[in-house]
Amino acid sequence: MDELIKKKTWTTGRLLLLAAVVALVAAVTVSLLSSAGPSKLNIDPERLTISAVTRGPFQEFVPVDGAVMPIKTIYLDIPESGTVQRILVEDGATLSAGQPIIQLANTDLQLEMVNRETAVFDLMNNLHNTRNLLQQNRIQQLNQQAEIDNQLREAKRLFDLNQNLYSEKVISRQEFQQTKNSYDYQLRRRQLSRQALRQDSVAMRQQIGQMQESVTRMQSNLALMRRKLDDLTIKAPAAGRLTSLNAEIGELKTRGQRIGQLDMLTGLKVRATVDQYYISRIFPGQKGEISVNGKPYALTVKKIFPQVTQGLQVDLEFVGPVPPDLRRGQTVPVRLTLSDPTVAVRVPRGGFNQKTGGNWIFKVSENGSKAYKTDIRLGRQNPDYYEVLEGLKPGDQVITSSYEGFDSMGELLLNAKSE
């Protein structure tokens, strides 16, 4: 009896055919992978900015905006409180030194001035009266001294006469002793009188000196009070232009309140605010430059303010001539140099650095058909160029526009239109 033989699914031929197909697919895959290389993208060159790498002068600087200001400003503050009585000049007027600006009125200060003047006059009158009394007393003492001297001379004459008579036994000892006692008394009296006169003279000088010192102090206080009254007239401390005058008739101004400022006419300066990133690189004497009507003018950093708020404030003064068309408050662009001029390999600034961080760039091939990634290292920078330290040489063509959308590509094909 015949048996049914089952047909085999995987025959030797089929297995050989399957192996051949797998080998073919593997070979094609390997071929494709080996020939593909980095990812590529077709892009229209007109969408790109292609710049040349050059060697030329390079100077690091930072652009800042500066405000034109007077080289010196004097602020006008109220030294004594008062009510504005008169405004003697207009805002913006050019003043000479000592010229009155505002007249204030202060009745309390004026009343105190009158009281102090009265006190000084009273003290001076007392000093005059005291000096007269002391002088009269001294005259009386001198008269007494003269009388004592006269009596002493008379007593001495009698004593000398009786002494001779007593030695000749003409008069008695009792009579001689009386004249001697009288002479001794007058002699002692003169000594006491002269001593009292000297003491009275010292006391008189001390009393008059003390009163004179009191008068001098009160006169000094009176002079100070007069200066305070003079301060009610606000005057220009120096020649200049009055700006920002803030005063109205009848307005009460308190001590220390600012009413305006006086701008010196001796020159102009530029005040600029530098980003905090450059704080460590700013120093007095640093150079800067502005351009007015196409003409450059040199500046130098004169003052650096210690307070740092939204940036570092610096004052720059002109070196040489000042632009004739500058006005106070005008804003000017300042180039603040951070290094001396040098010669360097440089690439123009562009949007490429936002994606690459300055670590690589698309370099265009010599025939201009493609651009490929090239590792680079950048150094200093200014608003126009980056300094190239490694990876590029003068004459190279690079893409400096933004790499948005193709920064992950390894190669750009520049001969075809972008898809």
Question: Mind explaining what this structure looks like?
Answer:
The structure is a single chain. This protein is α+β, with helices and mostly antiparallel strands and about 425 residues long. The protein folds into 4 domains: about 40-60 and about 340-415, conserved putative lor/sdh protein from methanococcus maripaludis s2 fold (Beta Barrel), CATH 2.40.420.20; about 60-70 and about 265-335, Elongation Factor Tu (Ef-tu), domain 3 (Beta Barrel), CATH 2.40.30.170; about 75-105 and about 230-260, RNA polymerase II/Efflux pump adaptor protein, barrel-sandwich hybrid domain (OB fold (Dihydrolipoamide Acetyltransferase, E2P)), CATH 2.40.50; about 110-225. About 35% of the residues lie in helices and about 30% in strands. It has 4 helices and 24 strands. It has helices at about 10-35, 105-165, 175-230, 350-355; strands at about 40, 50, 55-60, 60-70, 75, 80-85, 95, 100-105, 235, 240-245, 250-255, 260-265, 270-275, 285-290, 295-310, 310-320, 330-335, 340-350, 360-365, 370-375, 375-380, 385-390, 395-400, 410-415. The strands form 6 sheets. The chain has a 6-stranded antiparallel beta barrel with strand order 4-13-16-15-14-17. Strands 1-24-20-19 form a 4-stranded mixed β-sheet. Strand 14 (about 285-290) and strand 15 (about 295-310) form a beta hairpin. Helix 2 (about 105-165) packs antiparallel against helix 3 (about 175-230). The protein starts with 11 loop residues before the first helix and ends in a 6-residue tail after the last strand. The model is unreliable at about 30-35 (pLDDT under 50).
